[in-house]
Design goal:
Oligomer: single chain
Order of helices and strands: HEEHEHEHEHEHEHEEEHEEHEEHEHE
Bound molecules: threonylcarbamoyladenylate, magnesium ion
Distance between the termini: 53 Å
Shape: globular
Number of strands: 16
Number of helices: 11
Strand content: 15-25%
Length: about 325
């Protein structure tokens, strides 16, 4: 039996399987099986009211899960699926409350990773799959990250190699007249706005958020090592202080590091947003394994091309200076 057939058999039996996608690895279960979906929440330690995305093979299955699908949704699916875009739509009545967090909406996405695309085609139904990490932790972008994350409790991991995009999908809500960007990600806001010929509302104020998107919580995607983010001018004095305190420092610089390199491990990050996104979670996990006591990360520019990366860095940071 091939790995893919084994994964298929396990999913049909109501078990969990970690699946590769172009964004991050997902922890998948049959979206129509309540016990299977409950296993995701138990393994992740995720609060029950956080909705999960249903993964499907293509837009041909949209009608199986969603109702009253607006023209904008079809346009987006035609242009960007399979790919790193999740659409929030009205749900069909049969969609489990465990998946929607009790809301009357459902998140749907057709991932492009060839292994998972094939798995979904053969499975026929939908796969509920949040990122395959414990709640609040950094998303996994390699099969080994998933194994590290769950240890002895780890389910079968379908190894599809390192994820190409490296940060989670863009989430767009089409529930109201005006489409809303709930989470920036692999598909840029500009590309969506150009296609729809309208601007997206960007939902940023987590304090007043009515829609429960865990990516909107202030602390999310965090490494275990204390992460401090900021611009160079703010970081430099904090680094001097940390050195004086005997901290074991790692620095993630944006391009070449301009400061003193003594006693620190310097990791130079790419100055291209796609490259940066592809590497960042792996980098944070590597540093987590190496016994540093503090990470200083020099932020990329706050320009539109860096929206998704800056969003994740803001949430991953324990302190922003
Ligand atoms: O790229 C991705 O989207 C990855 C891969 C595995 O597909 N998945 C992922 O899942 O990031 P997760 O559960 O870590 O994040 C999904 C986000 C959560 O913030 C959740 O609250 C939001 O999607 N979401 C899901 N259904 C929703 C709904 N009906 N309304 C609002 N937000 C929803
Ligand atoms: Mg997640």
């Amino acid at each position: 039996m091939s790995e893919l057939e084994l994964a298929l058999a396990r999913l049909k039996a109501g078990e969990l399987v970690a699946i590769p996608t172009e964004t991050v690895y997902g922890l998948a279960a049959d979206a129509a099986n309540l016990d299977a979906v409950a296993r995701i929440f138990a393994l992740k330690g995720r609060p029950a009211d956080h909705p999960v995305i249903v993964h499907i093979a293509s837009s041909q299955q949209l009608n199986d899960w969603a109702l009253g699908i607006p023209a904008d949704a079809w346009k987006l699916a035609d242009a960007f699926w399979p790919g790193p875009l999740t659409l929030i739509l009205r749900r069909q009545p049969h969609v489990l409350d465990a998946i929607t967090g009790g809301q009357d909406t459902v998140g749907l996405r057709a991932p492009s990773h060839p292994l998972t695309h094939e798995l979904l085609k053969r499975f026929g139904g939908g796969l509920a799959a949040p990122s395959a990490n414990r709640f609040g932790h950094v998303s996994p972008t390699r099969a080994q990250h998933v194994r590290d994350e769950f240890g002895a409790d780890c389910p079968l991991v379908l190894d599809g190699g390192p994820c190409e995009v490296g940060v989670e999908s863009t989430i767009v809500s089409l529930i109201h007249e005006q489409p809303t960007l709930l989470r920036p990600g692999g598909i840029t806001r500009e590309a969506i706005e150009a296609l729809l010929g309208k601007s997206l509302t960007h939902h940023t104020d987590s304090g007043t958020a009515k829609i429960r998107t865990s990516g909107l919580l202030d602390s999310h995607y965090s490494p275990r090592t204390h992460l401090v983010t900021g611009e160079y001018a703010h970081l430099q004095p904090a680094i001097t202080q940390a050195r004086a305190n005997g901290e074991k420092l790692a620095i993630l610089s944006f391009g070449p590091w301009a400061g003193d390199a003594a006693t620190s491990a310097i990791h130079e990050m790419p100055d291209n947003p796609s490259e940066y996104a592809r590497l960042i979670y792996d980098k944070l996990r590597q540093i987590d394994r190496q016994g540093y006591t503090i990470i200083f990360l020099q932020l990329p520019p706050a320009t539109p091309g860096w929206l998704a990366v800056n969003d994740r860095l803001r949430r991953a940071a324990h302190t922003r200076i």
